[in-house]
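Review form for a predicted model. The reviewer records the input and the model, then writes brief findings.
Reviewer: anonymous (R2)
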Amino acid sequence: MTPEVSAIVVSHRSAAEAAGCVASLASSFRAEGISGETILVDCGSGKEEERALREAGSDSLVLLEENRGYSGGVNAGLAAARGRNLLLCNADVVFSPGALAALVRAVGDKRVGAAAPLAFWDSGERVKLPPGYAPGFLTDLAQLLGGRSRALDDSRFARFARSATRLWERGGTAKQLAGAVLAARRDVFDAAGRFDERYPFEYEETEWEARVRRAGFDLLFVPDGRIRHLWAVSSSRNPGTAARRAASEARYRSRYGRLGRAFLERASLLARNGTESASAIEPSFEARPGAAVAVSPNPSGIPFAAADLDRAFRLPAEISARLAAGRWRFTVFRKEDGRPLETRVWEKGE
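Model under review:
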């Protein structure tokens, strides 16, 4: 029998996380009455990882000899998938009850090309990860110049905060969706094509989503579907991550033309990072009804993860322990209009 959903889980040196993802999918299929298959794709992690992945409980296991990146892993999974609905997901994802059904309902609308769930960073489901962040020439330029103009940074922050809050609370169409989990129908891939494997790490879903929109489909954010995403856990343990990210960024910026790329490279020399005073003590915040606190590693403050300040907040220990060393910005903002109210900078040590 053809499954209703083919879930493609892509892993690289993430066997433990992949096993948890597969288990949560199997539980969702059973509890939500959805016929489905899980296809676990490993991107050249080596024999030890392969042995662990064989015990993960997936319906199919695809072992790639080399690391073709998330884009290559997705494409290999698509080649093996049988379902009419396709679920693409990182290995470091855990599905909450009802998430799968919500995404399947969303892509049942023929106007929808891809749908993404609300992703939480912590097990307590308080810190929401950004719903998406669409790059572009002006956006990239503003990011590079972040920290140079308070007025510009505050204006951009407020726009992003308003959009993110709307999507987190009400859902709806978006310009770009975060790619940790994406649901789509097979006919969308027929129209837009598969992932571009010239993007070895990041930007692959952004480029694909642009093709989906050009094909006439909407991108939909679905807050009723909830997942936990262990953001940056697997990438932080892979030494080639930075180089692969840089290669993807360079590929994406080639869309701006030779002069556009040169202008951004020049602007990067002017980038300011770490000029604000910072505390070695991780900040905590009192309750502030109607406000939220954003967390970002970027001088501009965006994109960001955020938690409502309906009660006092301190970054959960499970997140704090995994954060990369460096400066992290905590910005309190008013939810109704996104206006930033207070910013603190924390210097996280090694």
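Findings: The chain has a mean pLDDT of 93.
Further findings: The chain has two domains: 5-132+174-231, 136-165+239-350.
Recommendation: see findings above.
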